[in-house]
């Protein structure tokens, strides 16, 4: 492509179709896995769209933009990255078809190209308006009645939702086992008084510290163990005594003041010059004395386990061993912060006196052998903060590193997906924009009534999608929403979106078009008889068992994200290639277009 | 969303069947290109930000830093199949079109036999002949597009000299020798024409004529043995 050619819609479509072809074979519950290998021999096995797309070598700036959008969406919702690309490709195709139809009458080709280039972002903007404002209402009215809410008491629905999620990520043999395991973990971390999203958020934030990968064992060996696993081994040969409770302290800095680091300047004998009293020897003796006092204080408090974020000095190690204390060094920040949250202690910082608040009480602390590694296993006493919680850590086994990695990513994304189901986020975004518009319209008056009416649409918008809403999988959502869009009195772009949505169930049933038609007729017949609510519930429960469940909130967020991505891709007028100085040929171009993206080739 | 005004909206007609076929073919080609590109991306090829100069497809780059265009190098070109110089079918269809154009103004009552070809209507060559696969014994010579007047006459004489009927060998041999002579003459003439021919199309047809002559010579020699 010449350095500053205008971007054509066909070019964009070709790029997105290539990405679609990449993920198509992994799509759906019957999809396959992709094995990536590096020259170093390292391998990665995945069915996750984000991981597959991120592993590709893409220098095309728009392709990277699309993959970035997919990655961000996956981070937010945990699911739907392959559906994202599928929907994006079909949406762009519909837009292209609509534009060709509109401009088919024009016979002057030059004019057609320019008109085409202007028409695409225009259509995309209209779609974005539709998706931001009317989509939630449409979904709430036309789709949600055919679904139901997850129940907090009974975890059967959770299990079903997770099983259908795992069906798209791991092999079907392990789906039910993994969903059982995840449900059990959620149950144990559930705080009775809080909403599920609080515990899910906690799990999601601390997931790196809450799981241990073990390769070389079958998946069925995966289990939950009580307490926390610290992924380091004891630095001292001596293990903590078996007396209960075991007292522990957390150190984030060096126990012995560091003599000299690189770049440090130590001024000895400042002011008086170097005398016999203030040489280096005296300084090092002072550091040793301060270390001894720290150890003595810890001993007086009965501490027998020391957790350190840094590698302590040999003297500290020797003194700790002498004082019958065990030391674990180089503990990661996440694990330390989780430990401190669960035990309720504050870390010992430099210079402060060690008090009771720095000492945690653990019910036990012992080494645990997981796979080829020995770790430290701690369990917490029943403290006031954690009395309702039953902290546990997940040990995930897999035959090889790649499979273990795959299962871990799947579980982490499942937690994220559940979080999105229980807390639909995008409604607050749309509501915020509406809220600000309303408040801007009313002039700065301190009238309570105007302010309350201004805030009302904000509050109302937020509750449109109920938390925990799920619907039978297998294209139900797409069929229902597509029908709703076609029947609504919304602008013509809704037809575009309606047709694009149908590509998803078409791909799900691509191996058998008959099933697609059957599914479509079944759901359309449900829609035709809205009064027959009993039949509705029966049919939804039947289809639930067969097809599984999917989250409505994730789907809504997906559609909005796809439309946003399509808009941003179509808004790009020109791509400029700016080569860095490393390249032999240097091309510097003046930027004439305002809507342009600059691509610097990295080398 | 009428960008060009309402008049042109009313002028829009749905595409004809031929146009639909073209659109369908183009779409299938695009799908194939996308699928190939997806496969290459999964094999570790890099998708560049540049397009191919010839066809406008996105370029891929392999591990050895070599650029690769999927449509140019792997797929049959969209337009090559319409070029008569490269495709026998296209050449045939071009010849038929010319015949059709030539026949309509002419009033040629009687059926054109293979002997009276001086008028200008050329007998319909069968596709197998054009491919150069001339079976022994059949009339293998496709007449060139702009036949010189002498050309049809030796062809006609060859057509009459059919060897399949089993005459006695004494009568057989002079007939075969005549046939051989005629073919050699034709071969010499074709070679001379080939050396001086400026057109690509004619050269290709002359070459196929030479091939057919050689084949007929071979079969005649086999018969004489």
From TrEMBL, chain A:
Single GO biological process annotation from the record = chaperone-mediated protein complex assembly
Q: Which Pfam families match?
A: Cpn60_TCP1
Region ranges (Disordered): 429-451, 583-603
Is-annotated flag, keyword Chaperone?
yes
- Which UniProt keywords are listed? ATP-binding, Chaperone, Nucleotide-binding
User: Which residues does UniProt call coiled coil?
Assistant: none
The family this protein is said to belong to: Belongs to the TCP-1 chaperonin family.
Q: What is this protein called?
A: Bardet-Biedl syndrome 10
Q: What is the lineage of its organism?
A: Eukaryota, Metazoa, Chordata, Craniata, Vertebrata
Automatic annotation (TrEMBL), chain B:
Protein name as it appears in the record: Zinc ribbon domain containing 2
Give the residue ranges for region: Disordered. Answer: 93-169
Bias-annotated ranges (Low complexity): 153-162
**InterPro entries in the record, alphabetically?**
SSSCA1, UPF0148_domain
Where is the sequence biased in composition, kind Polar residues? Answer: 101-119
Q: Which organism is it from?
A: Oryzias melastigma
Q: Where is the composition biased (Pro residues)?
A: 140-152
What domain of life is recorded for the organism? Eukaryota
């Amino acid at each position: 492509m010449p350095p500053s050619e205008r971007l054509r819609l066909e070019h964009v479509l070709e790029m997105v179709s290539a990405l679609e072809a990449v993920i198509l074979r992994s799509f759906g519950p019957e999809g396959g896995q992709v094995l990536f290998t590096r020259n170093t021999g390292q391998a990665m096995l995945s069915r996750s769209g984000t991981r597959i797309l991120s592993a590709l070598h893409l220098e095309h700036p728009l392709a990277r933009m699309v993959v970035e959008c997919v990655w961000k969406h996956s981070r937010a919702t945990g699911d739907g990255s392959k559906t994202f690309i599928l929907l994006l490709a079909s949406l762009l195709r519909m837009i292209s078809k609509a534009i060709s139809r509109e401009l088919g009458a024009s016979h002057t080709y030059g004019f057609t190209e320019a008109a085409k280039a202007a028409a695409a972002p225009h259509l995309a903007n209209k779609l974005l308006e539709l998706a931001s404002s009317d989509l939630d209402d449409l979904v709430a009215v036309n789709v949600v009645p055919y679904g139901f809410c997850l129940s907090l008491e009974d975890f059967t629905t959770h299990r079903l939702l997770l099983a259908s999620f795992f069906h798209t990520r791991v092999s079907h043999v392990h789906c039910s086992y993994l969903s059982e395991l995840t449900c059990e973990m959620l149950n144990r971390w559930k705080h009775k008084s809080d909403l599920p999203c609080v515990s899910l958020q906690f799990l999601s934030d601390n997931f790196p510290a809450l799981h241990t990968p073990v390769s070389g064992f079958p998946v069925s060996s995966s289990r939950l163990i009580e307490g926390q696993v610290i992924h380091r081994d004891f630095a001292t040969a001596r293990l903590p005594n078996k007396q209960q409770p075991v007292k522990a302290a957390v150190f984030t800095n060096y126990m012995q003041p560091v003599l000299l680091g690189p770049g440090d300047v130590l001024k000895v004998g400042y002011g008086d010059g170097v005398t016999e009293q203030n040489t280096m020897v005296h300084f090092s003796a002072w550091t040793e004395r301060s270390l001894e006092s720290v150890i003595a204080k810890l001993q007086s408090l009965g501490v027998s386990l020391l957790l350190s974020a840094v590698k302590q000095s040999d003297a500290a190690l020797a003194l700790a061993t002498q004082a019958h204390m065990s030391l674990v060094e180089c503990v990661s920040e996440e694990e330390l912060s989780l430990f401190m949250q669960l035990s309720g202690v504050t870390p010992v910082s430099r210079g402060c006196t060690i008090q009771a608040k720095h000492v945690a009480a653990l019910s036990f602390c012992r080494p645990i052998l997981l796979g080829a590694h020995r770790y430290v296993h701690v369990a917490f006493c029943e403290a006031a903060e954690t009395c309702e919680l039953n902290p546990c850590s997940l040990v995930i086994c897999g035959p090889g590193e790649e499979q273990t990695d795959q299962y871990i990513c799947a579980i982490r994304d499942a937690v994220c997906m559940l979080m999105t189901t229980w807390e639909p986020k995008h409604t607050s975004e749309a509501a915020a924009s509406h809220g600000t518009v309303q408040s801007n319209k009313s002039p700065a008056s301190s009238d309570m009534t105007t302010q309350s009416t201004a805030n009302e649409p904000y509050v109302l918008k937020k509750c449109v999608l109920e938390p925990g809403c799920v619907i039978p999988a297998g294209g139900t959502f797409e069929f229902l929403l597509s029908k709703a869009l076609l029947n609504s009195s919304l602008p013509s772009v809704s037809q575009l979106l309606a047709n694009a949505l149908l590509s998803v169930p078409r791909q799900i049933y691509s191996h058998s078009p008959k099933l697609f038609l059957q599914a479509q007729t079944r759901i359309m017949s449900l829609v035709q008889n809205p009064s027959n609510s009993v039949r509705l519930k029966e049919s939804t429960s039947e289809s639930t068992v067969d097809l599984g469940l999917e989250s409505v909130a994730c789907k809504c967020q997906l559609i909005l994200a796809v439309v946003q991505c399509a808009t941003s891709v179509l808004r790009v007028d020109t791509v400029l290639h700016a080569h860095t100085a490393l390249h032999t040929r240097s091309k510097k171009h003046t930027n004439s277009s305002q809507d342009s993206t600059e691509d610097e080739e990295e080398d | 969303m009428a960008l060009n005004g309402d008049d042109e909206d009313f002028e829009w007609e749905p595409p004809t069947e031929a146009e639909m076929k073209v659109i369908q073919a183009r779409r299938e080609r695009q799908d194939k290109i996308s699928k190939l590109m997806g496969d290459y991306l999964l094999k570790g090829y890099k998708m560049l930000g540049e397009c191919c100069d010839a066809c406008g497809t996105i370029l891929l780059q392999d591990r050895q830093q070599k650029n690769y265009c999927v449509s140019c190098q792997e797929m049959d070109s969209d337009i090559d199949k319409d070029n008569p110089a490269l495709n026998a079918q296209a050449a045939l269809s071009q010849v038929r079109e010319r015949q059709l154009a030539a026949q309509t103004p002419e009033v040629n009552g009687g059926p054109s036999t293979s002997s009276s070809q001086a008028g200008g209507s050329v007998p319909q060559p069968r596709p197998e002949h054009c491919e150069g696969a001339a079976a022994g014994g059949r009339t293998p010579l496709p007449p060139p597009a702009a036949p010189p007047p002498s050309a049809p006459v030796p062809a006609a004489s060859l057509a009459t000299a059919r060897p399949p009927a089993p005459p006695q060998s004494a009568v057989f041999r002079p007939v075969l020798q005549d046939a051989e002579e005629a073919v050699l003459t034709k071969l010499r003439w074709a070679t001379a024409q080939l050396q001086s021919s400026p057109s690509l199309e004619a050269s290709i047809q002359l070459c196929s004529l030479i091939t057919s002559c050689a084949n007929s010579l071979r079969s005649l020699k086999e018969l004489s043995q």
